[in-house]
Each structure stands twice: as C-alpha cells, then as structure tokens.
Amino acid sequence: MKRSAINRRTPFLKMHALGNHFILVDARERQFSPDLATITDMCRHHSGIGAEQLLVLTRSPTADAALDIYNVDGFKAEACGNATRCVAWYLMDQTNQKTTSISCNGRAITGKMIDDLTVQVDLGEVLYLPQHEEVSAKRWGSFEHGFAIDVGNPHLVFLADQCNQQELAGVAPSIQADPLFPDSVNVTLAHRQPTGGLRTWTYERSVGFTAACGTGAVASAFAASQHLSVTGPIAVHMAGGTVSVLIDESNHAHLTGPVTLSFRGYW
Fold first, then answer.
1. Do 70 and 27 sit in the same domain of this protein?
2. Does residue 122 belong to any structural domain of this protein?
3. How far apart are CA 88 and CA 84, in angstroms?
4. Catalytic position from the list 43, 80, 86, 104
5. Is the CA virtual torsion 148, 80, 212, 218 positive or negative?
6. Is 80 part of the annotated catalytic residue set?
7. Helix, strand, coil: what percent of the chain each, to 5?
8. Residues 101-153 pLDDT 10s
9. Residues 62, 132: one domain?
10. How far apart are CA 213 and CA 239, in angstroms?
11. Cα torsion at 38, 40, 46, 49 (round to 10°)?
12. What pLDDT sits at residue 35?
C-alpha cells in the first residue's frame, strides 16, 4: 500500500558531492532502522527520493557520530569518501564548528571545513589488500597489472596510458564476480594527465559507473604515488568534477572537494 504524505515522518537531507548523491538520515535522537524494502524504496529514482546510497547517523561513544552506509541493494558498504565528506559537512554545519569526527566501520575519520562548501576528510591509512600480489599477476581482457587497494572498502585500480570506458564496462562485472574478491570490488581505470593529475572512471559495486567516487580517487592517487612517483596533492578529475587527494607520510588519505545540499524533506 502506498504511504500517504501524512505518514512520512522521517526527516532527511538529499546531498551530493560532484554528482555522487546520497540520502542522509540523522538517527542520533530518533530511531531509524531501515529494512531492505525501505532502503530500496528511498533510493529508487523515479518513485523514491533517489540516491546511490543511504547514509544513517547514530550515536558514537568515540566520535561526533557513527555512520552506516547502505547501497541501493540494501546491503552495507564499508566506506565512501564522498558520502563521508557530505556527513562531515552536515555535522559541522549543525555545530557551527570547523572540525568533526566520524566512526565508520571501525575507522576513525576526521573532517575539516575548508570553506562553506568544501570539506576535507582524513579517511585513515591506505593499504594493499592481502590478495594484491595474486591480483597484480592476473589479466582480465586487456586489463592487467592491477593494484588491489584497501581504502576502507576494496578497490582495483588499473593505471593505463589509454582510456577505454566502454571496455571497462564490459569487463568490470566479471572482475567483481572473481573469487579473488569475495565481497566484490570497485574497479577504477586511472589515466595520468599530460598537464598533471589523474582522470579516473570507477565502476562501483551495486551501482555501475558513477559521476564521482571519492575512495576510487584515493585508491588511484595511492597507486600513482606508489608506482608513478607522483607526489604532493594530486588532482583527480572525474565526470562530476575534481577532488584533491594527499597521501601523507603515514599513508593516510586526505580527500578534499565540494559538497552540495540539494534539499530537505520527510519520508
């Protein structure tokens, strides 16, 4: 049965970061435990609010808020860089502070307001996945020498001289179904720009291509810093726009970019 407007009592924000768009529900003061049907209904573009992920904030004993991230299929995601920047902006806007802290899937994340709509987050240490060596020796179509990287969620990055988004779309589902990635994997193609920086395309789990992927940008910058001797803040250009990624001496990733509040409403 269709829910009437009078029964819609859960406040939410619709936000996006370079077109990577989210529904944010603050459940720190009022309970909100979405089931599979609720998540998919809210994220559905034509009949719901429309989003690539649902973000739910709850209380945390160690941070300003704990963050749970749900994909459109209803299952939890381990991390999302752009979502975390949106959440950081919301928390700082609520408190009128310039810094904030977020707990997400066991990671302690800090956020900093650069200006009114630009946020930087420290996503923690970037590591290679345990299966990195095995993955780097495997080939999928013309894609080889991939870098399996842990940014809080799993990524496979290919550093390529040529960019073939269509071929990536054809091969990414088979990579995501490979037994090497029991929890699937986000697949990114990264091309070093002649003028500096990287151009990336990310085929995300449960979604496909997105306008921007923050953790994909971080994973690409990490691979470039390790294997292309790229140093300092790295500009990562995506279909939705550009972020800056700094991999510091302790391999922590600092992701900086714009966020946008689209609208508020009730569900």
1. yes
2. no
3. 6
4. 80
5. negative
6. yes
7. 20, 40, 35
8. 999 999 999 999 999 999 999 999 999 999 999 999 999 988 999 999 999 99
9. no
10. 10
11. 50
12. 95
Q: Are residues 12 and 58 in the same domain?
A: yes
Instruction: State the residue for tokens 């993955």.
Output: 135
Instruction: Say how many domains are in the chain.
Output: 2
245 and 131, same domain (yes or no): yes
Q: What is the pLDDT of residues 179-212, one digit of tens each?
A: 999 999 999 999 998 888 999 999 998 889 989 9
Instruction: Identify whether 53 is part of a domain.
Output: yes
* Parent domain of 152: 127-250
- Dihedral, CA of residue 187, residue 80, residue 210 and residue 133, to nearest 10: -10
262 contact partners, CB below 8 Å, separation of at least 6:
13, 14, 15, 16, 21
Choose the catalytic residue: 43, 86, 104, 213. Answer: 213
At 85, which CATH number? 3.10.310.10
Of residues 54, 7, 51, the one with CA closest to residue 26: 54
Task: Tell me the two tokens of residue 69.
Answer: 């991230």
43 flagged as catalytic: no
Distance CA 202, CA 214 (A): 10
Span between the terminal Cα atoms of the chain, in Å? 15
Does 37 map to a domain?
yes
Please check whether residues 246 and 137 belong to one and the same domain: yes
The answer to whether residues 105 and 143 belong to one domain is no
Residue 39 lies in a domain: yes
Helix, strand, or coil (residue 111): strand
- Whether residues 131 and 109 share a domain: the answer is no
